[in-house]
Amino acid sequence: MRKKVSFTVSDIVSFKQSLLLWSQQYYEVVWLDSNGHKSKYSSFDGMLAVDALTSIVTDTQNAFEDLRTYQSNAKDWIFGYLSYDLKNDTERLTSANIDGLNFPELYFFQPKKIIRIEGQVVTFHYLNMVADEIETDFVSINNQNDALTTELEVESNIRIKLRIFKDDYFRRVSKMLNHIHRGDIYEANFCQEFYAENTIINPLRTYQKLNSITRAPFSTFLKINDKYLLSSSPERYIKKINNKIISQPIKGTAKRSLDINEDKLLLKTLENDAKERAENIMIVDLVRNDLSKSALKGTVEVEELCKVYSFDQVHQMISTISAEVPSTANPVDIIMETFPMGSMTGAPKVSAMRIIEDLEASKRGLYSGTVGYFTPENDFDFNVVIRSILYNNTAQYVSFSVGSAITAKAIPEKEYEECLLKAKAMRQVLEN
Asked: What is the DSSP letter of 267?
């Protein structure tokens, strides 16, 4: 059981900063920030989970089965992540590419302490065993000062390397196009890694800088012992509210401009771009099929098709698909039946994942996986891990990956430019 105590906070921006600083004393941290983005499916402005009572970690087959048992037995909030390579648990696939990060494939924990922010109201949801710490923790959070300014800053001499160089990228995309023209697939998301070795960063400071640039609606700071995710994700993978499930894939990207008229033109051009719309619609069809595996017959609905939304760094084309599921549907099964998300794979899905594995040069791991939570009522909400920096402190290895959708009309040079646009914020943060 959890005790709930609410406080009203006048300066929520400062409180968020202090809350994140306070959280660093724990080995397990998940921070989710909507950055003020409001939609009909928003649940909170920010939520923090820290300090594991129980946890599950696995690299093995049957990961979803293990998670199903853990989630069912916990009957409580659990927070964590699923890596992209759990595709090997849902299909007969493998992952053999270079992995410099070495994150577990799956990690979830039951937090002793949850702090939720809605507007100016901050609510502490603490397990009864630590409920007497609520008042003390609230005072402690408010008394945090910016000690990070005296801590290690982001290294100014980080040397970002490319796993795939430009000519090699063109060669690999050309092979992808050959598969498409031959009819093996219609579309696939092709990704490349940027990385730095023997590198030490301050994860929280790096996250704060990234978040200040992007202010994304599914922003995440995750810490599991020595491993960190610093994410400025704009994309929701899947959410469940009562008997309704919602997925909001992104396909279609355009840069922003400081010139208002040029920015409007860039947005309008994206809205009317036949290639970008075709990419988005293909993934919408894939997501509709994925959701139909769990859905009640006739309930899968496209609520919004190819709507362009503007973020600080880019314009994005987003669609919203929903469905109704039986009240008896297991929440982990719903995720397993749709995983990995369509926007990061391709169509047909299994063939695309097999070709992706063959042509990409590094293991995706948590990149293009998902971070989120399950509630005690069997609801959930998960993002897509993109626009993210991953860091293994022990290995001193920093990584970020970007990708784009390859279709029959793809021009390798333009796809490469799109990747560089998506990499801009992460590179800017790391290279200072």
From this structure: H
* Rounded average pLDDT over 38-56: 95
The DSSP secondary structure of 396-416, one letter per residue, reads TEEEEEEEEEE-TT--HHHHH
E strands, 181-226, where?
187-196, 218-224
Distance between CA atoms of residues 72 and 34, nearest Å: 28
Burial class (CB in 10 A: 0-12, 13-18, 19+), 99: middle
Alpha carbons 164 and 284: distance in angstroms, whole number: 29
Kindly tell me if the per-residue pLDDT of 419 is higher than 70.
Answer: yes
Peptide bond into 376 cis (omega under 30): no
Whole-number average pLDDT of the chain? 95
| Active site positions, annotated | 235, 251
pLDDT of residue 61: 83
206 three-class SS: helix
376: enclosing H helix or E strand:
none
Lowest mean pLDDT among 133-142, 145-154, 183-192: 145-154
List the one residue out of 421, 408, 368 whose CA is nearest residue 81.
368
Q: How far apart are CA 238 and CA 216, in angstroms?
A: 17
In the predicted structure, residue 152 carries a pLDDT above the cut 70? no
234 CB-side CA count, 13 A: 24
> How many CA atoms are closer than 13 Å to the CA of 205, on its beta-carbon side?
15
- Tell me the backbone φ, ψ of residue 159, rounded to 5 degrees: -105, 105
Q: What gap in Å lies between CA 36 and CA 135, rounded to an integer?
A: 27
* Six token digits for residue 56: 């599950």
Backbone angles phi, psi at 61, to 5 degrees: -65, 165
Provide the residue count of the chain: 432
**Overall pTM > 0.85:** yes
- pLDDT tens digits along 222-253: 999 999 999 999 999 999 999 999 999 999 99
> Of the candidates 306, 180, 314, 313, which has an alpha carbon nearest to the alpha carbon of residue 249?
306
Take residue 140 and report the two structure tokens written for it.
């402690």
